[in-house]
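We were asked to recover a plausible sequence for a given structure. The inputs and outputs are reproduced exactly as logged, with field labels preserved.

PROBLEM: sequence recovery
POSITIONS: 350
GIVEN STRUCTURE:
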């Protein structure tokens, strides 16, 4: 599943999905995109920011540009893109490329997997979050009203290009958002990665290519391995939700960026792991220090009762038990079914 392409100093990771193989190319560049797509019948979906910076490097195919941000993951936008494809004579032999962050990847992946019952697609992931998380794993979708990602499919892109040089233009806040997921990968699966993040903080924050390529590679490998084992999220893939249960509730209440909410959620889950006697005090402190060093928050001013109520509201079925991802140690996460009262009691002390 892991090979090195010496010509272009690129790492290639393959996920063998139910809908086909997906090749993730870390270090491949946007200008090399034409090597991976058909010679004709290609349609590009991107957003205003990305096209503003990189249009001159796009291959010469029709481009649909959406507004940047979450509001574009919406049925109205999607319907317009379906119409645009029809007007441009797209058919079952066409190919879609999403060039952008997680929003564009989720949208382009869903448009492609539903248009004419599904046409092939690939991504150039341009944000750190898209490179380490959103573009990898075959989940796509759009929002419906207040419900995030509620409509979508599991369909693998044929390829994902992670051009890490494009991260140079990514705003700092967006970079930090992506770092929260990178840190999550280290915490759930890879203690070496955690140490690398500790040691190479300056190089990473300066976005030095070598350090960034390393962390993107490691994250993609971790996510790809988990997805390969459990593509449809029935078991192991749930560890990827580490920090997201409490984090989502905080995000809903506070409307802060996802990465910040996940950081608070990870601090919470690590605290709960320590409280229950799994995680050592030293590991817990190390985690808090690392999050802080990457400019990520550890807590919020929100009323914990209220956050807990929001968390429960999200659980449609059982209200008195829930699955929660905890840490045994740095690099080793597990899913535990817990009484919600235990979580609530801890929340009131957090
Ligand atoms: N499908 C999945 O498995 C999965 C996993 C995690 C997140 N997601 C989804 O991903 C989305 C968030 O992704 P995101 O954080 O990338 O958000 P995003 O796509 O909105 O990108 C963040 C911002 O960065 C800009 N941007 C992107 N690349 C840039 C670049 N190279 N230079 C300058 N600006 C750039 C975008 O225009 C946008 O303004 C959410 O909708 C979330 O639901 C999906
Ligand atoms: Zn996340």
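RECOVERED SEQUENCE:
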């Amino acid at each position: 599943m892991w090979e090195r392409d010496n010509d272009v100093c690129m790492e290639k990771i393959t996920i063998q999905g139910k809908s086909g193989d997906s090749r993730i190319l870390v270090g491949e560049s946007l200008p090399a995109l034409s090597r991976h797509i058909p010679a004709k019948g290609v349609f590009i979906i991107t957003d205003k920011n990305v096209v503003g910076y990189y249009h001159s490097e796009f291959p010469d195919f029709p481009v649909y540009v959406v507004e940047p941000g979450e509001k574009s993951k919406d049925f109205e936008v999607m319907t317009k893109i379906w119409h645009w494809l029809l007007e441009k004579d797209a058919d079952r032999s066409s190919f879609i490329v999403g060039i952008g962050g997680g929003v564009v990847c989720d949208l382009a992946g869903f448009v492609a997997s539903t248009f004419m019952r599904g046409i092939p697609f690939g991504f150039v992931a341009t944000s750190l979050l898209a490179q380490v998380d959103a573009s990898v794993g075959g989940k796509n979708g759009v929002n419906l009203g207040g419900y995030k990602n509620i409509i979508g499919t599991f369909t693998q892109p044929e390829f994902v290009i992670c051009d890490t040089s494009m991260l140079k233009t990514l705003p700092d806040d967006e970079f930090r958002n992506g770092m929260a997921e990178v840190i999550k990968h280290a915490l759930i699966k890879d203690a070496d990665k955690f140490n690398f993040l500790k040691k190479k903080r300056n190089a990473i924050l300066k976005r030095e290519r070598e350090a960034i390529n390393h962390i993107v590679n490691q994250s993609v490998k971790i996510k790809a391995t988990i997805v390969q084992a459990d593509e449809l999220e029935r078991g192991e893939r749930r560890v990827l939700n580490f920090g997201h249960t409490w984090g989502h509730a905080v995000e809903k209440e506070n409307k802060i960026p996802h990465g910040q909410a996940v950081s608070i959620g990870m601090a919470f889950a690590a605290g709960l792991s320590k409280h229950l006697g799994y995680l050592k005090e030293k590991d817990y402190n190390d985690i808090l220090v690392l999050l802080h060093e990457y400019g990520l928050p550890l807590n919020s001013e929100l009323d914990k009762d209220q956050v807990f109520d929001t968390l429960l509201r999200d659980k449609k079925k059982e209200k008195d038990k829930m699955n929660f991802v905890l840490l045994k140690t740095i690099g080793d996460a597990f899913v535990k079914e817990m009484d919600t009262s235990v979580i609530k009691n801890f929340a009131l002390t957090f």
